Amino acid sequence: MGAGYPECVSFVQGFAEAVAVNREYLTQLDAEIGDADHGINMDRGMRAVIPKVEALTDQDISGLFRTVAMALISTVGGASGPLYGTVFLQLSSSLKGKSEIELSDWAEAVLAAVTAVQARGKAEPGDKTMVDALLPAAQALREAADEGLALAEGLARATAAAHQGMEATIPLLARRGRASYLGERSQGHQDPGATSSWLLMQTAEAAFAKGN
Amino acid sequence: MGAGYPECVSFVQGFAEAVAVNREYLTQLDAEIGDADHGINMDRGMRAVIPKVEALTDQDISGLFRTVAMALISTVGGASGPLYGTVFLQLSSSLKGKSEIELSDWAEAVLAAVTAVQARGKAEPGDKTMVDALLPAAQALREAADEGLALAEGLARATAAAHQGMEATIPLLARRGRASYLGERSQGHQDPGATSSWLLMQTAEAAFAKGN
Amino acid sequence: MKKLINRPDDVVREELEGIAAAHSDRVKVSLDPYYVMRKDAPVQGKVAVVSGGGSGHEPMHGGFVGLGMLDAACPGEVFTSPTPDQILAATKAVSGGAGVLHIVKNYTGDILNFEMAADLAKEDGIQVEAVVTNDDVAVQDSLYTAGRRGVGVTVLAEKICGAAAEAGRPLGEVAELCRKVNANGRSMGMALTSCTVPAAGKPTFELGEDEMEIGIGIHGEPGRERRKLATADEIVEVLASTIVDDLPFKSNDQVLAFVNGMGGTPLIELYVVYRALDRFLKGRGIAIERNLVGSYITSLEMAGTSITLLRLDDELVRLWDAPVNTPGLRWGA
Amino acid sequence: MKKLINRPDDVVREELEGIAAAHSDRVKVSLDPYYVMRKDAPVQGKVAVVSGGGSGHEPMHGGFVGLGMLDAACPGEVFTSPTPDQILAATKAVSGGAGVLHIVKNYTGDILNFEMAADLAKEDGIQVEAVVTNDDVAVQDSLYTAGRRGVGVTVLAEKICGAAAEAGRPLGEVAELCRKVNANGRSMGMALTSCTVPAAGKPTFELGEDEMEIGIGIHGEPGRERRKLATADEIVEVLASTIVDDLPFKSNDQVLAFVNGMGGTPLIELYVVYRALDRFLKGRGIAIERNLVGSYITSLEMAGTSITLLRLDDELVRLWDAPVNTPGLRWGA
Ligand SMILES: Nc1ncnc2c1ncn2[C@@H]1O[C@H](COP(=O)(O)OP(=O)(O)O)[C@@H](O)[C@H]1O
Ligand SMILES: Nc1ncnc2c1ncn2[C@@H]1O[C@H](COP(=O)(O)OP(=O)(O)O)[C@@H](O)[C@H]1O
Ligand SMILES: [Mg+2]
Ligand SMILES: [Mg+2]
Ligand SMILES: [Mg+2]
Ligand SMILES: [Mg+2]
């Protein structure tokens, strides 16, 4: 049994809550190697998303993610606005027509989303960005789907992979985004965008895995 | 036996030293009810005075004090520059022609100096200014001279009177100078100018009373 | 103390050397004694406008020297009035035969030093008129005190009198105009932080994280009152209502609204303050005809703001709009 | 956090309302979405110059809208790039049929948002060229990084390109000119204190009483290196020699020297810095032909300075000298 429209809505709401709860934490991570606004940015964006999502009537998963994307793009700004906008835009187009998401659909959609983020932001794995959490998560989903695992299990692996990827950003030298200006001083700090991307995977798991 | 030219020079030098030693103290008093520069101002002035005084050759007391006055006026600025300049200008004219200062000369000169300061600055006794230290000192000198006391004793009384006048400024509400802008908040603080004026009387005593 | 300086004792001289290096197209700087003058001074037949005061208020006064504003400015040490010899030298240097106006902020030190200088200049045959600005409503005014401080209105008076002098008006009229500006202007300021006099090396006063000083001057002196930190709107309400009630400014008055930064406050905040002031004045029916937003009369790196209102008439508007070309204020040229 | 604001979330909107109230003679302000545009825009047949970026850098960019400089500026939240819809709306509003130049500082966020906006504008039939400024020598430049930040040169590029657009030059030329300014300009900055993002509520970094950050940007981000506090002369030596050696600027080069304050540094200190820079450049045989001293590209209330040098030729001098009439920069008008 896959995730339907209600699960997708609770994924989006769960992400908004996670971002709100971690607003200071994400901002503090960004203060260390950036400009102290990542939590503020994401929270502003997700707070704008919620009423838009609540106003939706037609139970369309693709439309839902498109709404999220447009709201993020027009309220977040910064690097994370277009990049998370791209994530949700790509989820929207990958999932067009679906009313239930199976593990293989989600794996494909997340992989396409990472690819789109890389196309926009030119970040390679290891550059200390959100890609370092998203790409391992997408790969874990892909492998889980290939192995024929249940949705819940695949999602759990994705969260674990994102978490590992996020933690692996700590020793990295930033090569993209604002942290790259710090050169060697960026080492020893966890990337804020990788952290919010881990939260994204975690909330997807929590929302989609209910009862799966 | 009165004070001669060498004693007057050591008075000026003593005042320069006293001001240097009390630079921070006077500045701190001014920080509380003024603009944190009285010690800096007086020290800048007296440092400029010393080489000018050392360059003098003609052993003339009046000329010495005039030199001090002109140096203070052209280097101190602020309220204290013209006011201490006025003090020394008046000492200079009161002591014109004298080669030794007796207690009655000094009493007359200091009284004339306070009067000149009041004419310039329009401060009345009790306005929380240097007048509150100088005027009691001048009056003590006058009385001591009238009583026929020795120079040393008269000077000691003047220092004590200046000290008392200085301390008496603490509860006063400032009505002249920068401290007056504070209104009631000026109460409870000792006036910086009254404090430097007490130092002036103290150094006069130390310099003139030697062996008297 | 964290400042971009070398030695505290050298700050004023080095600042003047910096001004000389940067603005030699418009000003000449004398280092002994200190003063800044228009490059083309003395302008023959023109009234010369001279001001001065302690340093630490930049761009005032040195930054206001140039066409349509000051002929010369005399900077003292930080927060210390200049000395008579400086003022005398500047007065002589810019005197073009039509007399010299001294614009003096009401501080004992400034008054006394300018008085001495004016006496000496008159002995040298130069006609001098002095006008004292005293626009700070935070200070109680009384015959028995030193009276109110001269603050923000000084900037406006220098601009307006400079324009009148440039237009060839005689000394008596320019001085009268200066008194008119002063009579129609009122100011009040507040601070979020203290400043540090370089030679003193530590902040003049200490303020808690949740405190502010209301009614400060421009010399790092404490204000009339310490209060709990408030919003920009509340602060403007306090400053502006005190100012408006004092003159008083009335409904249908036209004013120049000047929102000034104290040196450490960024422009973004000054616009938040201006917005509140605009609303406040609209509420009182007072029309802002002209405005000035920026850090023009400062107190070193103090964070805070002051508001100045000047009641305008056609003459003042015309003179305000006249060309000015100084490092600190420039338009129409 | 001590600021003259109301609620942290309202700072940008209220600032814009303040700008609208103060400068309605020259600009119009849109609050939904946020942008500031010339009052007389769109100017038919003229290339429009648009810039934008996070707020907190005032007067950049909103204060540079007006005759001879920007046609529109898009302010994001504090230190956060504006969104594509803002940039699109501003681009459409000022497009006068001759194309629009986007001047974009090199930050991932600015690049991405301006790119999206340009794509959308092109779909609407508007010709857009984007030029990226990246003048900060504190940042290592490499194909494999985000490259250098855009800082001080942006102000100069906006002035110079604005003048060229005003003179009627076509989009391709104005864009080429912008690339030329960027190619000939270099900057570096330092901080004595951190700043506090209003929504974050506490300083972005902590610095000891005897420490400074060298190689900072304009977003409160830490610099390349933390060092012991030094004198103004030593600081200038570090910044200026890194800048000069990078391009490199050579003996007999003519430059525009821009000494910028980071928002919390008073003018008196900037002149001490300018003096040191003037001496340093004289020592290298580099001639300062034009200069700019003041706080033009700031980082909220950060104390610190940045130096920008731009190699000049006759064309750049002419365009720099051309009239400009904006709230933040004005001459000849
Ligand atoms: N080129 C890029 N590709 C992918 N992710 C990026 C890129 N640049 C920045 N990021 C991500 O964006 C995060 C910062 O987002 P945020 O702080 O909201 O924006 P800004 O850097 O504009 O202030 C970084 O931690 C990083 O994960
Ligand atoms: N009108 C006045 N008459 C007499 N003394 C005055 C007057 N005004 C100020 N003073 C004295 O000057 C002192 C302050 O001197 P100083 O700090 O050097 O100058 P400023 O007030 O200009 O900074 C005060 O403490 C007070 O004693
Ligand atoms: Mg950030
Ligand atoms: Mg003082
Ligand atoms: Mg003083
Ligand atoms: Mg940002």
Keyword list:
heterotetramer, A: 212 residues, mainly alpha, 9 helices, C: 333 residues, alpha/beta, 8 helices, 32% helix, binds magnesium ion
Short description:
The complex is a heterotetramer, with two copies of chain A (about 210 residues) and two copies of chain C (about 325 residues). With about 210 residues, chain A is mainly α. Chain A has helices spanning about 5-20, 25-35, 40-55, 60-75, 80-95, 105-120, 130-145, 150-170, 190-210.
Secondary structure topology:
The complex is a heterotetramer, with two copies of chain A (212 residues) and two copies of chain C (333 residues).
Chain A: H1 5-21, H2 23-33, H3 38-54, H4 61-75, H5 80-94, H6 103-121, H7 131-146, H8 151-168, H9 192-208
Helix pairs in contact in A: 1-2, 1-3, 1-9, 2-3, 2-9, 3-4, 4-5, 5-6, 6-7, 7-8, 7-9, 8-9
Chain C: H1 11-22, E1 27-31, E2 34-38, E3 48-55, E4 72-78, H2 84-94, E5 100-105, H3 108-123, E6 128-133, H4 153-166, H5 171-183, E7 185-191, E8 211-214, E9 225-228, H6 232-246, E10 254-261, H7 267-283, E11 287-294, E12 304-311, H8 314-321, E13 324-325, E14 330-331
Parallel strand pairs in C: 3-4, 3-5, 5-6, 10-11
Antiparallel strand pairs in C: 1-2, 2-4, 7-8, 7-12, 8-9, 10-12, 13-14
The complex binds adenosine-5'-diphosphate (2 copies) and magnesium ion (4 copies).
The site of one magnesium ion has 7 residues of chain A, from loops.
Plain-language structure description:
- The complex is a heterotetramer, with 2 copies of chain A (212 residues) and 2 copies of chain C (333 residues).
- Chain A is mainly α and 212 residues long.
- In chain A, 68% of the residues lie in helices and 0% in strands.
- In chain A, helix 1 runs antiparallel to helix 3, helix 2 runs antiparallel to helix 3 and helix 8 packs antiparallel against helix 9.
- Chain C is an alpha/beta fold.
- Helices cover 32% and strands 24% of the residues of chain C.
- The longest helix of chain C is centred in the last third of the chain and has 17 residues.
- The chains are: A mainly alpha (212), C alpha/beta (333).
- At the A-D interface, helix 2, helix 3, helix 4 and helix 5 of A face strand 4 and helix 3 of D.
- The complex binds adenosine-5'-diphosphate (2 copies) and magnesium ion (MG) (4 copies).
- One adenosine-5'-diphosphate (ADP) sits at the interface of chains A and D.
